[in-house]
């Protein structure tokens, strides 16, 4: 079965062939246990780091508490009618108490729900903000797709649960205490019923609440993993079809849904069955015992009929309040489980951006120099780059070549400051790029990847993505002409306002690549990075794209990673890396003479092209 979650995926890679299913299931369970570890203070940690509207929450709490106090007076007012005094004043008094209780009930409900919605909003926006700003290390260690459910389900449950904990439960406790105080006014003997009610409900809250918390946490991880799995598969449906893997994926999906069902079964069937039985049992016991106790006190003359009536109403009210508290407590326990996932995201290292970033904003133009750069992805990993030094001349085209896995893309990631070198440094002019303001630095760069992404939306939005200025129609047409796409756009009924299908799937790979290049043109960045810009394209389109890159960005610093050495040969400078080390740099002719690795790469490619192997 397909394993869900990044950690599962890592283990999956280690599990070689064979009947991986059972082994992977075992791994999944281990992984589930590991990732399910909840720190005791996760909840407070999350509360501290999310900007909740505490003012609104406190207001909802105050209104709710006042309503509880007024509500607790209703049984007393009603019982007092039992003495047969139906004077207008007394009737009006009862009506007034009921009316105030009703109005306050409505107001407190509105405030509570409003506070809940605002808290969910705060949780969701904070989670999204954190996710966007997290460092690459966090993305490496967690499956990004599974985090969908953090923004949707977890943020919702946490925001709502917080208001339940800080508003609903305290107002219920105030109601409970007010009822007790009211009962004290009648007879302290009647109050002895609490010796039965309180332990019964506390047992429930303690044991069932804990169970609910554990299951809630399992459920959150399980839904997260399933969401991640489905998001990945749905995104790659064409690939599944082209590999005729529908049957296998269908089976995987069914198994995944079945796994979630197992957790749901424990949560919705077993847990809920226990909750309902326990609640019915406590309601029955407390009713019977309170009637017997009240009747006994009445019979022995230790209380009167008015007190007995008030007592019966208060016991019903106390019981109902306890039940509400225990149900809400269950939700609170559930949302504490979610705090675990949110805390892991919040504590993840974030990029220093915005006002916090004191880096250099005025970044000089100049050559880009790598000086003895070393890099490893994880602290204990082997270095992926070792002792790399080269110069990328300003305003020229530099190609980085080398066999697959040699570290070319990693170098680009360091240049983009997605990661920081673990040794050495990269400078522009005389400034270490790590000392620059990250936003200013990234604005200086435009990065065009292999099979560039296009979000759903209009063609205009796709062209202007991340271009932070108004782009006129004329400029758009000029750029579209330069990338040989305007003739196609003119044929579309809505031109630049044509809506693109999912993720730009209605465009060909070449068209998407051209749009990515157009974006780079519109951004007017000083440094352009092309990572295998032609590898997924047919030779004719690849030629056209290469021509655009070499012609349209003259005077800019252009860095190209490419396997296609006949394009690379045109570059002003070529840097050769192999197994994370520098092999040489220079022009094509120089490297053919002096660099064995480059020479071999060219020979191998020429052979492949001639013999089509
Ligand atoms: P190239 O672009 O030359 O094909 P890469 O820079 O993508 O090479 O990869 C260089 C090495 O770094 C490879 O061994 C690859 O497995 C490893 N690597 C790449 N990305 C990561 C990552 N996020 N975590 C750990 N190792 C990685």
Structural commentary:
The chain has helices spanning 6-14, 20-35, 42-49, 54-71, 74-79, 88-133, 136-141, 148-184, 194-235, 237-242, 246-299, 305-346, 408-415, 438-444, 459-464, 473-482, 486-491, 509-523, 539-552, 565-568, 588-594, 596-611; strands spanning 368-375, 385-392, 397-401, 423-428, 431-432, 445-448, 457-458, 499-500, 527-531, 557-561, 573-578, 581-586. It has 613 residues and is α/β, with parallel strands linked by helices. The protein has a domain at 41-347: ABC transporter type 1, transmembrane domain (ABC transporter transmembrane region fold). A six-stranded mixed sheet has the order 6-9-10-3-11-12, sandwiched between helices. Helix 1 runs antiparallel to helix 2 (20-35) and helix 3 (42-49) crosses helix 12. It is elongated and about 115 Å long. The model is unreliable at 1-36 (pLDDT under 50). Bound molecules: adenosine-5'-diphosphate (ADP). The site of adenosine-5'-diphosphate has 11 residues, from helix 13.
Name of the level-1 CATH class of the domain at 41-347: Mainly Alpha
User: Outline, from the CA principal axes?
Assistant: elongated
Q: Any idea what the CATH architecture of the domain at 41-347 is?
A: Up-down Bundle
The strand order across the widest sheet is 6-9-10-3-11-12
Report on the biggest sheet: 6 strands, mixed
Average per-residue pLDDT, rounded, comes to: 82
């Amino acid at each position: 079965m397909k394993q869900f979650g990044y950690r599962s995926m890592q283990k999956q890679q280690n599990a070689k062939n064979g009947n991986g299913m059972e082994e992977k299931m075992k791994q999944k369970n281990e992984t589930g246990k590991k990732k399910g570890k909840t720190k005791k203070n996760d909840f407070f940690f999350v509360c501290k780091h999310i900007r909740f509207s505490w003012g609104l929450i406190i207001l909802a709490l105050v209104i709710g508490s006042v309503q509880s106090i007024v509500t607790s007076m209703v049984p007393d007012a009603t019982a007092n009618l039992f003495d047969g005094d139906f004077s207008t004043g007394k009737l009006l008094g009862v009506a007034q108490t009921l009316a105030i209780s009703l109005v306050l009930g409505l107001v407190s409900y509105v405030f509570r729900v409003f506070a809940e919605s605002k808290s969910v909003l705060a949780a969701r926006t904070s989670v999204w903000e954190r996710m966007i700003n997290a460092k690459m290390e966090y993305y490496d260690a967690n499956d990004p797709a599974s985090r969908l459910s953090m923004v949707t389900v977890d943020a919702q449950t946490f925001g709502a649960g917080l208001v339940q904990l800080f508003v609903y439960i305290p107002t219920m406790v105030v109601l409970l205490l007010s009822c007790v105080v009211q009962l004290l006014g009648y007879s302290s003997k009647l109050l002895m019923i609490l010796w039965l009610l309180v332990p019964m409900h506390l047992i429930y809250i303690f044991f069932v609440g804990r169970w609910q918390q554990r299951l809630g946490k399992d459920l959150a991880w399980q839904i997260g993993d399933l969401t991640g799995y489905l998001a990945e598969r749905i995104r790659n449906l064409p690939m599944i079809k082209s590999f005729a893997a529908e049957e296998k994926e269908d089976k995987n999906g069914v198994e995944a849904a079945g796994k979630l069902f197992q957790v749901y079964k424990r949560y919705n069937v077993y847990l809920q069955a226990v909750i309902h039985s326990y609640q019915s049992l406590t309601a029955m016991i407390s009713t019977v015992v309170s009637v017997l106790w009240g009747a006994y006190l009445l019979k022995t003359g230790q209380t009167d009929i008015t007190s007995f009536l008030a007592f019966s109403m208060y016991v019903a009210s106390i019981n109902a309040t306890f039940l509400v508290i225990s149900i809400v407590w269950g939700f609170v326990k559930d949302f504490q489980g979610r705090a675990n996932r949110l805390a892991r995201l919040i504590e993840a290292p974030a990029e220093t951006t915005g006002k916090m970033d004191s880096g250099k904003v005025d970044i000089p133009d100049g050559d880009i120099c790598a000086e003895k750069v070393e890099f490893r992805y994880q602290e204990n990993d082997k270095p992926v780059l070792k002792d790399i030094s080269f110069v990328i001349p300003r305003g020229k085209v530099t190609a980085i070549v080398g066999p697959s896995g040699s570290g070319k893309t990693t170098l680009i990631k360091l240049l983009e400051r997605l990661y920081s070198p673990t040794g050495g440094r990269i400078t522009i002019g005389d400034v270490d790029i790590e000392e620059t303001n990250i936003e200013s630095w990234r604005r200086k760069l435009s990065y065009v990847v292999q099979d560039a992404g296009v979000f759903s939306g209009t063609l205009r939005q796709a062209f202007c993505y991340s271009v932070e200025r108004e782009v006129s129609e004329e400029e758009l047409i000029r750029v579209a002409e330069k990338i040989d796409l305007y003739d196609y756009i003119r044929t579309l009924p809505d031109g630049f306002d044509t809506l693109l299908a999912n993720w730009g799937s209605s465009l060909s790979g070449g068209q998407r690549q051209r749009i990515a290049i157009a974006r780079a043109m519109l951004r007017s960045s000083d440094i352009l990075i092309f990572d295998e810009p032609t590898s997924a394209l047919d030779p004719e389109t690849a030629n056209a794209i290469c021509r655009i890159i070499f012609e349209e960005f003259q005077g800019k610093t252009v860095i190209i990673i490419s396997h296609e050495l006949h394009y690379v040969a045109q570059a002003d400078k070529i840097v050769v890396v192999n197994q994370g080390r520098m092999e040489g740099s220079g022009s094509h002719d120089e490297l053919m003479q002096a660099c064995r690795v480059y020479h071999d790469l060219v020979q191998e490619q020429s052979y492949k092209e001639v013999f089509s192997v």
